[in-house]
Amino acid sequence: MKKLSMITLLIVLGLFLGGATYPEYFFKLNFSSEENPALKMQPYEKEFDVQPGEELVIDLETGADIEVEGWDKNVVSVVYNVTGPDADKISVEIERTSSGVEITSRRSSHKNNIQTDESVTVKVPRVFDLEFSTMGGYVKLTGIEGELEGTTMGGEFILEDLKGNLSLTTMGGDISLTDSDVDGKVKTMGGDIMIDDIIGNVDASSMGGDIIHRNVMRRNGDVAGDEVSISTMGGNVEVDEAEHGAKVKTMGGDIKVKTVKKFLDASTMGGDIKVMSLDGKADVSTMGGDIEMTVTGSSFDESDIKMKSMGGTVELYVPSNFSMDVQIEIRYDKRHSEDAVVVSDYEFKEETRDAEKDWGKSTKILKASGSFNGGKNKVYIKTVNDKVVLKTK
After folding, report:
1. If you ran DSSP here, which 8-state letter would residue 338 be given?
2. Can you name the residues that pair with 163 across neighbouring β-strands?
3. Which domain holds residue 384?
4. Does a structural domain hold residue 53?
5. Of the candidates 119, 135, 151, which is a domain's last residue?
6. What is the pLDDT of residues 98-139, one digit of tens each?
7. pLDDT at residue 13 above 70?
8. Is 19 exposed, middle or buried (0-12, 13-18, 19+ CB in 10 A)?
9. Residue among 258, 212, 203 at smallest CA distance from 236
10. What are phi and psi of 36, to 5 degrees?
11. What are the pLDDT digits (tens) for 262-316?
12. Could you give the CA distance from residue 237 to residue 322 in angstroms, rounded to a whole number?
């Protein structure tokens, strides 16, 4: 044993004196992909003749980045790359099935901590269904028409130039959906959502990110099912245009709607609401922010409005000929008596009365009411410890 150790020492000493530094030799011995094939495997590559309308199924137990692109060939082309120290412990299968093509990855080792870097790039006919599941990695889909369904446990979605129906979920990444003609839903448990230049009906929900919804056109037909539907647990929401109405909800952010018709149902637990153009009815509420809304249009059919804030200024701007029956209620305590006012171009009948104690504080309620231009639409506004503004615009 001592003799072997002495030989090893002499070899290392000889390498050092011969000009090779110890770190360089160590790197070549342990980390060179050329000398250790487990670091970089040859890519798995296959092609299959298929027919448009078939299905690609991707089931990746190990997780990988996925890119699927439509092309003008009746061929599915697959390139699957695996690198990393444990690349040789991954089993990949690419098979032709009776309904299309299936790609699977499995661990051939029971080790919990397998270190690999994997990606799969697929080209399919432009009309082709897709179903995928991956334990982690981003997903990019472009130029495909069909039924598109899938889940990634930890990565972003990049969705461009798609047609068909969507049902896509990521457990922890952003979603970008652009330049597409689609229906369905997209969901992220912890990221932002951007929906831009879309024709169709797409529901978007996030557990903790902002949602931007702009340049979205609805198809002709019944209003039911065609409205914008957005919800997030902890981010801002921005809607550019909702021709057939909107349902918007956030648990902790602001809501901004540029143009909405027919109806708006919006609520936030901790932010402001701003509606720049409303042509229809509205029911909006916030637990801790300001509300500003501007009514536009000319017919004013079914234009009842309800605005409620638990602690902010509420502003409503209406056309001079808007027909409305108005009820305003402001609850306030002694410290906010000067803030609790109605600022308006209209003359209201006002009354103030004592209210029950709120958290041990004596409170009052200011009520204001009035009917204008025939009183056709019901307007109800409520806030706490702040003012209400109702003016023509």
Report:
1. T
2. 145, 181
3. 291-393
4. yes
5. 135
6. 999 999 998 876 666 778 889 999 999 999 999 999 988 899
7. no
8. exposed
9. 212
10. -125, 95
11. 899 999 988 999 999 999 999 999 998 999 999 997 777 789 999 999 999 999 9
12. 28
d(Cα 363, Cα 138) in Å, to the nearest integer?
A: 54
Measure the CA–CA gap between 182 and 127, rounded to whole angstroms: 14
372-to-173, 274, 279, 290, 344 alpha-carbon distances in Å: 50, 24, 18, 25, 13
- Rounded distance, CA 339 to CA 250, Å? 27
Q: Is residue 191 part of a domain?
A: no
The tokens of 12 are what? 């290392």
Domain end, chosen from 83, 103, 135, is at 135
Query: Residue 359 falls within a domain, yes or no?
Result: yes
CA distance 106 to 93: 9
Q: Structurally, how many domains does the chain consist of?
A: 2
Q: Is residue 177 situated within a structural domain?
A: no
Burial degree of 190 (CB within 10 A; 0-12, 13-18, 19+): middle
Instruction: Find out whether 71 and 125 touch, Cβ atoms under 8 Å.
Output: yes
Q: Which contiguous run of DSSP H or E holds residue 11?
A: helix 2-17
Q: Quick check: 254 and 289 in contact, CB under 8 A?
A: yes
At which residue do the structure tokens 């980045």 appear?
A: 65
